[in-house]
Amino acid sequence: MAAERKPQPGKQRVGRRLLPLVLPVALLLGLLVGGYQYLSQPGRMPLKVIEITGEFTYLDQRSIEQKVAAVIDGGFLDLDLQRLRKAVLAIPWVDQVSVRRVWPDTLKMRVTEQVPLAYWNSDALVNLDGEVFRPKPLPGLSVLPHLYGRDDSAAQVVAFYLQLHARLLKGGLRIARVEMNRRNEWQVAFRNGLKLMLGREDVARRQQVFLDVYPQMLAHLHRQPERIDMRYEHGFAVRWRETAGDS
Questions:
Q1: How many percent of the chain have pLDDT more than 90?
Q2: 26-85 pLDDT, tens per residue?
Q3: Is the pLDDT of residue 16 over 90?
Q4: What are phi and psi of 57, to 5 degrees?
Q5: Packing angle between helix 203-220 and helix 154-168, nearest 10 degrees?
Q6: In which element (H, E) is residue 81 found?
C-alpha cells in the first residue's frame, strides 16, 4: 500500500492567515468592476458640461462645438476621447487639442489654433513647422509671403525661407515668394520686385555671394537690379531695371 501523505501544518497555517486578507480585496475589486460596468451603461453619468477654451482668430468656436456634439456617443466614463480629439483635429484651423474628464460630469477641451507662416501653393497655408493646412475659404493676408513646392517638401521650403529671411533682416529686403520647382531649383522674389535665381547646386555659397554683392550694387550703381542669376560656376548675371533715361 502506498504511504499516506501527512498534512503539512505550516502551509495550512499560511493559507488560513492569507484568507482574511484575500477575501476583502477580491470583494472590493468585484465591487469596483461591477460599479464601473453599471456606471458605464448608456444613460448613466451623462456629460452635462463641455468647456472649450482657446484663443481664436480664424477658428469659429461654434463649429468646434458642432463637431464635438456630432462625435460624442457616450457618457462621462465611456466617451471615446481619442476619437473626439481626432475629429476636432480634422478641422483645418486646429493645430493641437487636449481633452480631459473632470469628475463627475464635465469635459474640458483646450484647442490651439494654427498660426499661418505663409501661403502654400495656390490653395493652402503652411505653419512654422512646415505643416500644410487647407482652410476654406483662404483668408486674405497680404503680409504673408507665398511659398511653392511639393507638399512633401513643405518643411524644407519653410526652413529655407526662415534661414534666408533671418539673413536679410538687416539689409531691408523682404521676401515675397520662395519656390522650389520640380527640378529642385530655388527661386526667390522680393517685395521690391527683384528676382533671385539660385539653382539647385551650391545654394548656400550662392546665397552668400548674393548677400555680399547686393549692397555694393545699391551703393555704387545708379541703376537697380531687376533679376540676378547666380547659376554660374564663376560669377553671376544681372538684368538691370530700365529707367526713364534708357533708350
A1: 64
A2: 444 544 444 444 444 454 568 888 999 999 999 999 999 999 989 988 787 888 999 999
A3: no
A4: -110, -45
A5: 30
A6: helix 81-89
Rounded CA-CA distance 118/176 in Å is 10
Question: Residues 208, 178: contact at Cβ < 8 Å?
Answer: no
Three-class DSSP category at 70? helix
Contact 54, 115 (CB under 8 A): no
Q: In this structure, what C-alpha cell is assigned to residue 65?
A: 462645438
DSSP classification of residue 204: H
Buried b (16+ CB within 10 A) or exposed e, 142-153: eebbebbbeeee
d(CA 146, CA 120): 6
Query: Taking the CB of residue 170, how many other CB atoms lie within 10 A of it?
Result: 9
Rounded CA separation 36/38 (Å): 5
Mean pLDDT of the chain: 85
Residue 66 burial (CB count, 10 A): 11
